[in-house]
Specification:
Largest sheet: 8 strands, mixed
Structural class: alpha/beta
Radius of gyration: 22 Å
Oligomer: single chain
Number of helices: 18
Shape: globular
Length: about 475
Amino acid sequence: MRVLWVCNIMLPVIAEHLGRETSNKEGWLSGLCSVILLRQKENRIDLHVAFPVEKEMDGYAEEIVTRAGTLHCYGFYEDVNHAEHYDAKLEERLGSIVNRVQADVVHCFGTEYAHTLAVVKSAPNPKRVLVGIQGVCGVIAEAYMANLPESVQQSRTFRDILKRDSMREQQQKFMLRGQREKEILRCAVNVTGRTDFDRNYVMEQNPNVHYFLMNETLRPCFYEARWKEEMCEPHSIFVSQGDYPLKGLHYMLLAADRLREKYPDLQIYVAGNSVVKHRTILEKIKISAYGKYLLGIIRENGLEDCVHFTGRLSVLEMKAQYLRSSLFVCCSSNENSPNSLGEAMILGMPCVAADVGGISSLFTGGEDGILYKGYNNDCNSNKDTGNNARYSDEEKNPSHEKGAENAELDRNVENLCKAVTEIWDNPEQTREFCKNARFHAKKTHSREDNYRKMMEIYATVTLR
């Protein structure tokens, strides 16, 4: 079977071959790729991978022999820095690759990108195209501001003005991508997803689509370790990303001020790009309005000594940070199924997550950890999972006296504080959570089960 993947990144194995910096994004793609290549004799899949490249590499094509197996690579030019724009020339570029490969299945990962729409439009046989849901842009746009005060939402720094990239403009870009996403789903014949949340969204756009449930395979090293309570730093929290409002880092920083009253040794580690750098003149010029807001929270509450931005971490560095932290927190205002949470769960570490989007499809509140009531919006309400979330909005909260603008923000911060406290104040219960989370994640992210499921889906699509 000949399969063409259309991805939004150059897979690390390809980047290493070309001597380029590798990406930590979409780590599960590497996991899935390695399984397919290692079992090529069994599955007889001839795997081809297309991905965006800069202009000078447009048309790149090469066969790479890896330790796992053989991979055919194709580069196409796409302006990934302006993902909200649709370039009709992509149809010609992707159409050329599709016609060259003559694949039995064309698998596009993600509805967030222009190249997926280009494939859907240019493929000679739409029934052989499989579209995979990752994030849900239409919903991300609605939840993007994550209860930020209106004054913060409207603010702009020199960097934002120069790059035309204020928070409002960022939200608008997701709205445009959401419109394109709906067009993709309306045209799609076959779609894979993994949560009740994304399934409801897909069926709302196209009730006639063939929806396949397929969970994700994590990066290999996360199957090879286990979190140990005695090896971690007490009262340390790990947040895997926080460089834009949707990830909800402001909730965590606001909660930190309250948590430190009870846990004075509190430490928070944030991976990924730091948006609060301000030591040099250049860093001050480059700071965004969201970064400036976060920096203000840190300074106002004296958190400089307990909030640490690690910068970009390699996969092994990420695993090490999980293992030495005493709690993983996912405080986003919307997520479909964050792999960072899956990685924390399969390591068997304590986890706290906001009950938003599709999180409750992979994380059971009260069994795997604490699922708390997070961002409240219609975009997070097309699921019936609130019954296992702690601290609903029915609880009285004195913050409501501060007015509607701040009440919702305060409520989410208070719910997060309660969830963290419940983990740290109930060690026996938390140990049970850790066992359950690891067991649950091993099923959800089973390499064997997910590999078999993908083979079944590919076989089904080839019969369309």
